[in-house]
Structures are given as C-alpha cells and as structure tokens.
Amino acid sequence: MDAYEKQFDLRQGTSAYWHSKSHDLLVSARTLWVAMQENRNLEVNCWATYKMLIGMSFELIFKAHCVGRKTDFSKNHKLVDLAATADLSITDEEESIFNILAEYIIWDGRYPTPKQSKHLRDHWQNQNEVLTDEVQLGSLKGGISNGKLDFENLQPIWRRFSDAYLAAYS
After folding, report:
1. Range of the domain at 27
2. Better pLDDT: 139 or 164
3. For a Cys staple, 104 with which of 14, 51, 56, 96, CB 3.0–4.6 Å?
C-alpha cells in the first residue's frame, strides 16, 4: 500500500477528519453570512451558496458520527436520512430545515435547476411553507421570513451535534 492509499484510508476511517471538515464548512458559511449582513447586495448572489455550505456542514457532522460509530452511510446528501443513520435525534422543525438544506447540497447551491421541474416546484413550495410566516397587512395577507436559516439559528443546532460527537468520540 502506497502513502496515498494509507492517507486515504486514514482520512476515510477517522471521524476527526470528518468533524474537522464539517467545522471548516461551518466557518465558511459563517464568513459568508457575516459578509452578507454587512453588504446586503451579496445576499442576492450568495444566499444559495450560504445554504449549501451550512447544509454541507451538517452533512459532514452527521457523517462524522457515522464514521465514529463505524456505521456505513449512504452516498446521498439527504440530511434527515444521515441523521437517522447516525442515530441522532432531530426535531420536526429540524427535519423540515434539513430537507430544505439537502436540496441546496444536491442542486440549488450548484445548479440553476434540478433534473426535473417537479423538484423545483416542490422545493419552492417547501421553502415557502417552512421559511415564511404569514402576516396580516391590513386587509391583505402576506409572508415574512422567519429567519430559520439564519446563521444565528442554525449554529446552535450544529453545536449540539458537534458537542455530542466530541463527548462520544474524543
């Protein structure tokens, strides 16, 4: 076995590498979030990328748990499935958030469209349902963002899974 294969096997089978990469993605998402707050023009261009990065940080924290448990995980990016495989409990609200973030990992953070138009419609409808609170504006009803995907709301959730990882595998 050559040095590259040894390094590959070490990184693939050592949960600390997965946890570290998860943290790197979290820091990158935070950096982008801060920049978007300082320059609102960036929100238009970077919002999908932010959601992809934060989603990927959750993906890798779940996979770090799987590697630590020596549990095979599927090669998909569905966060709810990965959390279940890692035997991590999530709330119903977290499940709805993770379903949205998974779409950013799979396609919306990287491509202009999914493979099928139905996926676009479902994704947009799901986001509207989960991320928008209905408000009454006089005689009209409207929607306002509830901030569920704001970094300040997602970071404590990530921290909970990270703390559980550190308690179990450090």
Report:
1. 3-169
2. 164
3. 51
pLDDT at 62 over 80: yes
Q: Among 81, 44, 45, which Cα is nearest to 62's?
A: 81
* The pair of three-digit structure tokens given for residue 57, joined into one six-digit string: 């940080």
Per-residue pLDDT reduced to its tens digit, 100-112: 999 999 999 999 9
Cα separation, 64 vs 85, in Å, equals: 11
- The total of other beta-carbon atoms located within 10 Å of residue 14's CB is 15
What is the residue type of 167? Answer: A
Find, among 46, 71, 62, 125, the residue nearest to 98 by Cα: 62
* Count: domains in the chain: 1
Output 128-132 pairs: Cβ under 8 A, ≥24 positions apart.
130/96, 130/97, 130/99, 130/100, 131/100
Give exposure, 77-104, as e/b (b: 16+ Cβ within 10 Å).
bbbbebbebbebebeeebebbbbbbbbb
pLDDT digits (tens, 9 = 90+) for 83-142: 999 999 999 999 999 999 999 999 999 999 999 999 999 999 999 999 999 988 888 888
User: Crossing angle for the helix pair 15-38 and 41-69, nearest 10 degrees?
Assistant: 170
